Amino acid sequence: MTSLTPFESGDTAQRASDADRDRVAAVLGEALATGRLTSVEHADRLEAAYTAVTIGDLVPLTRDLPDVARTPSPGFSAEQQQVTAVFSKVIRGGRWVAGRHTELRSTFGALIIDLSDAVLPGREITLELNSFCGKLIVRVPGNARVIDEGSALFSKRHVSGGEEGGDPNGPLIRVTGRAMFGKVVVSRGAADWHWPWQGR
Question: Which residues pair with 137 in a beta bridge?
Fold first, then answer.
């Protein structure tokens, strides 16, 4: 039984709403937190949930899971996530789940994030990039459209991959935040830096 059960006896061809997708994400997040799903299974199902078109696409994703409250558990949120590097170097790449609002913070450190294979929860996400005396480098998916709304003070800030070069059906990534005495780079390709795990 899941929060989508009432639809099973109705019209499963009905178009799914963002609220329907978020309810499924909450069930999947609880299943991950309690060990019912592995991280790979969770990422696969979450990606399917946020690309679902109809209720019928969503129902199978939680059919084998118990129902949970309609708000996400404290350990999981499809809405917000934070990754920080303080006096250290942090690299995140491969398959991982980003938040609808993801804050990336580098303080006297280096934070390198690759979103090209990440699961993005929805068609629009916000990246809040805050760098203080640190380096913050982000690679976005090749089909992404990027809107830069951030600022810099005594810093280098380079955000490429604007809307004109992206896929109209690709994700929209809104970049906010502030760089102070630091460096922020956002790009679609790997040409601007060396990605250590890919040997480029």
Answer: 112, 185
